[in-house]
Amino acid sequence: MDSIADLAPGRAAAPALQARPLAHRPGEATDGRAFPYYSSMRVLLIEDDRQMAEYLRKALTEVGAVADHAADGRGGLLQAASGEYDVLIVDRMLPGLDGLAIIRTLRASGNQTPVLILSALGEVDDRVEGLRAGGDDYLVKPFAFSELHARLEVLLRRGAAEVPETRLRVGDLEMDLLKREVVRAGRPIQLQPREFRLLEYLMRHAGQVVTRTMLLEQVWDYHFDPQTNVIDVHISRLRGKIDRDFDTPLLHTVRGAGYMIRAR
Amino acid sequence: MRPGPSADGLGSPPPGLPSVPGERSTALVGPPRPRASRPRGPADDLWVWAGRVLGSSSFRLAVLYMLLLTVSVAILLGFIYWSTAGYMDRQLDATIAAETQGLAEQYRRRGLRGLTSLIKERVARDPTGAGIYLLVDKNLEPLVGNLDRWPGGFPNADGWIHFRLRERGPDRTEEHDARAQVFRLQGDLRLLVGRDVRDLEATRGLILDALTWGLALTAGLALVGGWLMTSRVVRRIEAINQTSRDIMEGDLSRRIPLGGSGDDFDQLADGLNRMLARIENLMSGVRQVSDNIAHDLRTPLTRLRTKLEVLRAELESALGDGHPASASVEETIADADVMLTTFNALLRIARIESGSQRAGFAEVNLAPLAEDVAELYEPVAADKDQTLMVEVPRSARVIGDRDLLFQALGNLVDNAVKYTPEGGRVTLRIRPLAESIAVEVTDSGPGIPPELRDEVFRRFFRADHSRSTPGSGLGLSLVQAVIQLHGASIELGDNGPGLRVTVRVPRPRPSAQANAQAPVTT
Questions:
Q1: Which residues of A touch B351 (CB under 8 A)?
Q2: Model's pTM, two decimal places?
Q3: Minimal Cα distance from A237: which residue of B?
């Protein structure tokens, strides 16, 4: 595979592939700050709704990212192709060039910059279509900014955290992925299989906000609207097992966004 | 094949057992009855096939066509036979009349002597010919002619007579029919002039044979032709049927195939296809509108929400955490979320109802899916001290959309948990049936009165006692949309006490799985 990819002229210099590990070194995952990367995150927002784009840009700047905006498909594609961005946020419906066409063009030319697709559609077929075109995540309008924020975090970290890990650690909480054991401060904690997966996902994204939707999609593997606060109930049950008998809580609720596990 | 003498003739029962006369239980000891459990052979398949053929409308139409055509042809051939035979009879009578005329001429001119000599001359000229002549005296004694005696029977009013003729040949004796006219002459003499109708009968038989065979051939050809013709028609009707069934199941892109000949069926198909194109056009128009609503209306709503979030962040940084102003913004965001949720649910239902998501259908095993649903809602039930049971077979495969099926089952369980009081009981059960997979959600809650059971699927319907419970009133509408998308059915019943919801999802067409029942309880 590699030799073929090397021969292809478009793929030879995939700058985005190198840009990400440089910008986000693995091992810096939990330094205590909620959003550790935004000092260096460069986002390109391809969105035709100028007001929406303006607010998103403002909100992204607020959390420390550098956000550029392209208002139409053609301009967005040219800007994205420069490879200067860590992540692209692409609206599906765009004047000039459709959002999916942009992603296909980028992928065909060897550009692997992570893409989050924004769409007002958002049923499963559209989601599948978007991911098949080469998108990395899919977010349906309307969304909470915190949801977008959390997903951008995960997208950025994905390339860096691909190293297979056997142990996860947050503060004094340790998870052995091979033995499937969880220990906090030397005391073993019994978890149901789903609770284990839930905790694993939270620990893999320690220091990052994880939304309820992300948990449903990643831990339960279903795209659906739960109507009630089922996830909250699962979280509070998990919290009862890992936090109740200890002085410092690890599992925090991030108001209006979701949950986060962190040491401090 | 007889079962042999053993059945009734096992002899005397063993000593100690009383013999009951006529008791048949001893027959069980004998060899198994023939045909008891005969394995299915090719003959059975033949019967099944024959049954299918005989029951098909092609066959019935073909038989009807054959009967009609055969009766018509039989009438036609009967008429041909009748007129041909009549013509031959008239020809015969004319010949006899001509002969009679010749004899009468002689008789008139030369008297009895002339008549006798002419008869003699004619018999001598053609001894084996078909002509028959006989002149007898008043005692019926033959005077001249080639008959040995006067035939029995009485002539009709016109003097015509039919009789059997026995011809003694050198090696065999033949019998045939003869037809003759009888005249009374002076001096009580009687003259018979007739003809052997052997050739005529033979010809008639030949014609009758030909016509019978023709009729049989017509019937056979009519059956085959009728079969070919009607099966073509039935096939085309079936094609239209199949297409309309596919369309009913939601595949609006299907079209009825055209034969290409431009006949009535093509015109019908063309008309229907145009209608379908129009409907599809309208449908996609509706979808376009709903997509546009989604894009045009949800975007400003998102903007509103984003603005509120930014505002909250600004308030918090300006006034610090926990200020009443930021709490109001928080509430406004929550209100906006309720609005957006309802709006999303409506759009989602509309999109599911459009049937477009059937494109993403795949095989789904409902058993682990139901376990996942139960596992997801179990802590919610546990919070209300409820028991949530799940009973599933090892495998319950259907064709569908995994996420939507999860959504539907999730909504049903969510409802059951929500409306069942504390300490109640909710069960999610999957039972494989012959034609479908039944998914049952039962609870021990208040149930739904029978008169409201159709209403609950309406958008925004909320039963009086549920007004206080949070929810949009769209949950069951969404369930129903998913059910319809899957060609499934839903039924609300009484669980005495409580509600019993039964969903029947059709099994995939080629069902070859025997599902072993293995209840699992969580």
A1: 123
A2: 0.56
A3: B379
Q: What are phi and psi of B364, to 5 degrees?
A: -125, 130
CB A180 within 8 A of CB A192: no
Of the candidate ranges A2-11, B201-210, B250-259, B486-495, the one whose mean pLDDT is the lowest: A2-11
Q: What structural domains and CATH numbers belong to chain B?
A: 66-205 (3.30.450), 275-353 (1.10.287), 361-506 (3.30.565.10)
Separation of CA A12 from chain center:
27
Q: Which of the two residues, B53 and A174, has the higher pLDDT score?
A: A174
- pLDDT value of residue B159: 84
Give the separation between CA B289 and CA B296, rounded to whole angstroms.
10
Residues 6+ apart with CB under 8 A from B437: B366, B396, B397, B398, B430, B431, B504, B505, B507
Helices then strands, counting H and E runs in chain B, come out as 8, 12
**Residues B148-161: tens digit of each pLDDT:** 888 877 888 888 88
CB contact under 8 A, B298 and A62: no
Residues 291-350 of B with CB under 8 A from A: 291, 294-295, 298-299, 301-303, 305-307, 309-310, 312-313, 330, 333, 340-341, 344-345, 348
CB of A78 less than 8 A from some CB of B:
no
8 Å CB contact of A124 and B401: yes
Under 8 Å CB pairs connecting chains A and B tally to 107
Looking at the domain A167-261, which fold is it? Answer: Arc Repressor Mutant, subunit A (1.10.10)
Strand pairing partners for A139?
Answer: A118
Give the separation between CA B43 and CA A218, rounded to whole angstroms: 57
What per-residue confidence (pLDDT) applies to A127?
A: 76
Query: Mean pLDDT over residues A189-211, rounded?
Result: 90
Q: Highest mean pLDDT range out of B66-70, B308-312, B474-478, B515-519?
A: B66-70
pLDDT at B145: 84
User: In this complex, do A62 and B313 lie within 8 Å of one another by their Cβ atoms?
Assistant: yes
Chain A, residues 12-71, CB within 8 A of chain B, namely 49, 51-52, 55-56, 58-59, 62
Chain A environment of B377 (Cβ under 8 Å)? 230
Determine contact: A120 vs chain B, CB below 8 A.
Answer: yes
Percent of chain B with pLDDT over 70: 83
Q: Are strands A87-91 and A115-119 parallel, antiparallel or unpaired?
A: parallel
Contact: A142, B340; criterion CB under 8 Å: yes
Do the chains contact at B406 and A194, CB–CB below 8 Å?
Answer: no
Sheet holding A258-261, edge to edge: A210-211, A258-261, A251-254
Q: Look at residue B71 in the predicted model and tell me its pLDDT.
A: 93
Fold equal for A13-160 and A167-261: no
Task: Tell me, yes or no, if A132 comes closer than 8 A to chain B by beta carbon.
Answer: no
Instruction: Note the residue count of chain B.
Output: 522
Q: Tens digit of pLDDT for each residue in B22-62?
A: 433 333 333 444 444 455 566 777 787 777 777 777 788 88
Domain residue spans of chain A: 13-160, 167-261
Rama region for A96: left / alpha / beta (φ>0; ψ in -120 to 50; rest): left
* Spatial distance between the Cα atoms of B500 and B448, rounded to a whole number of angstroms: 9
Helices B475-485 & B402-419 angle (0-180, nearest 10): 150
Lowest mean pLDDT among A237-241, B124-128, B399-403: B124-128
- C-alpha to C-alpha distances, B314 to A39, A59, B304, B325, nearest whole angstrom: 20, 11, 15, 11
Q: Which CATH number is A13-160's, of 3.40.1190.10, 3.40.50.2300, 3.30.70.2190, 2.60.40.10?
A: 3.40.50.2300
pLDDT tens digits, one per residue of B269-280? 888 889 888 888
From residue B446, how far is each of B63, B338, B443, B497 by CA, in Å? 60, 27, 9, 7
